[in-house]
Write a structure and sequence with these properties.
The chain is built from one helix and 24 strands. By secondary structure, the protein is mostly beta strands. The strands form four sheets. It has an eight-stranded mixed β-sheet with strand order 4-7-10-13-18-21-23-24, with no helix packed on it. A seven-stranded parallel β-sheet has the order 1-3-6-9-12-17-20.
Length: 217
């Protein structure tokens, strides 16, 4: 094979080799960093900040784009972030930021899509199989102090399998979103959402039923 196609192919192969070396160096620098050999070498371009005792696991076939710094993963002391098989941390339009405070745990399940969003935990956030989190969406399992009476609080968040959070959705502490649920754009989710339910608004309220989303993306 000759010409521009051959040049492009050679360039891609070179980039993959360089990224693989960079990824090995990151694993050496961060003892708590584990990455499956089949995960995308583009994770080498993520901005990683792992404190001593932190753990980051990237599972088989997990992917992200080769955009330097567009994926940021911050894991504090004693915290853990696990990215499951086939998860897609999509950074083409906006950055993806994942932050686990000291002792927190973030679980990103099989084939989950994080599309230009932010996930931040002080306790625990679990994203189940094939759920999708849309652009500019934010999941916070805590709230800051408001005053001397209304102090900080936190509570685990769970997002059910095959559910979809559209764009610019905010999910607050202590919320569970059921499987196959859909949350409309610009919604604020401050209480639980039942499975197979469409919600929207500020605060989000039930708008109708949702069927199975097993084949939806």
């Amino acid at each position: 094979m000759n010409g521009p196609a051959a040049v492009r192919r050679a360039g891609l192969l070179w980039n993959q080799r360089v990224d693989a070396v960079r990824l090995r160096a990151l694993r050496w620098l961060h003892p708590g960093f584990e990455v499956d050999p089949t995960a995308a070498v583009a994770f080498a371009h993520a901005r990683l900040n792992l404190a001593p005792g932190a753990r980051l696991v990237i599972g088989p076939r997990a992917v992200t784009e080769r955009i330097p710094g567009a994926l940021a993963i911050i894991v504090h002391e004693g915290a853990e972030v696990v990215i499951g098989e086939g998860a897609w941390l999509r950074t083409e339009t906006q950055p993806v930021v994942i932050s686990a405070q000291p002792g927190a745990r973030i679980e990103i399940g099989r084939e989950v899509m994080l599309n230009g969003c932010q996930v931040s935990a002080r306790e625990r956030i679990v994203l189940h199989e094939r759920c999708s989190i849309g652009p500019a969406s934010r999941l916070y399992d805590f709230q800051h102090d408001i005053d001397d009476v209304r102090l900080a609080r936190q509570g685990a968040i769970e997002v059910g399998a095959y559910s979809w959070l559209s764009s610019d959705v905010t999910v607050m502490d202590g919320v569970t979103i059921g499987a196959h649920a859909v949350v409309g754009a610009k919604s604020l989710v401050s209480r639980d959402v039942a499975a197979h339910t469409l919600v929207a608004g500020v605060p989000a309220r039930e708008r109708g039923p949702v069927g199975d989303r097993t084949h939806a993306r």
